[in-house]
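hi! just following up on the protien thing from before. the input was this:
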Amino acid sequence: QVQLVESGGGLVQTGGSLRLSCAASGSIFTIKTMGWYRQAPGNQRELVATITRAGTDTTNYSDSVKGRFTISRDNAKNTVYLQMNSLLPEDTAVYYCNVVPWFGTDYWGQGTQVTVSS
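and the predicted 3d structure came back as:
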């Protein structure tokens, strides 16, 4: 069984920063891609950022967070981070961690709330 434990969400003012963490543990094959998605009320879940390990780490960001958010990973700890700077009210959402192994199904975290006040 695989567990994803997320942390770091909270309430912050516009322009502030937060750092999300997601640690994967349990019976999981080597992780290919780790990522963050978010879902605001009434909206579909959307990609925020992913980081894929294939020789070197390759990152991918949604246009709405480019230049403000940075994704990184610690492969030894099976942990992914999302540094969020210059936060905006439209970044308010539940943020979900996603882990994709090289083999087998992917996994989702339970979600962590990020609220940006104006």
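The longest strand covers residues 18-26.
The mean pLDDT is 94.
cheers
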